[in-house]
Amino acid sequence: MYLAQAGIHDAIYWFRTHTKTGNGYFSLGEVKVGLQESFVLGGTDADLFMVNTSVSRINPLFTSDFVDISFQNATDSRRLTIDRIVVTWSRPGTARRLRRIYINGVIRWSGNLRSPASCNIQPDFRVNSVPSTYTLMLRFDNDMRNTAYVDTEFIMGDGSTRHVVVYPASNNFAFTVKSTGKISGSPIYRTVQAAYNLMPLVPGAAKIQDHREINAEIIP
Fold this sequence. Notes:
Immunoglobulin-like, 2 helices
């Protein structure tokens, strides 16, 4: 277990270290900590997909738009792929329709759907392994003031999913890392996963959440 725990702390250490000079990130794969001891870091695309909802809002000039949502990759080891985004919302009064999804100011989906809107991103959007920040904007057909909530489910290229409440704003910007600890030659392994939330609105408030053992082996 101590090797798996060491992997979790290693990932968070390097992520926090890199945030001092830019976007945080850590590397996946096997790390040797002794002649026969090692841990392996991994995760699904959804685990490593970070969405910052801390300042999301309705654009006061164009009240059909939800803006100031951003996302990034938590690792420099591989690219992530967004295949589809399902958007669900609740607002009193006349039903609204989702019209466009923009990533970095470019239309990645257009249509005319009521909630829940299943939006196939064409082509699939690649989130670079080089630490980069991307912006996400949702455009509806009319005024979205008085909206109770907007939920998103990102369906990734590997089939994994991440659920994120993008409105109202919340102090969330998190990734999940999985770590398997193992001694060479032994069939026994232990795996731990943990979510790490940067909580960007409160400096120094970042914390580990949902720390638990899982029955899976991360293979290098």
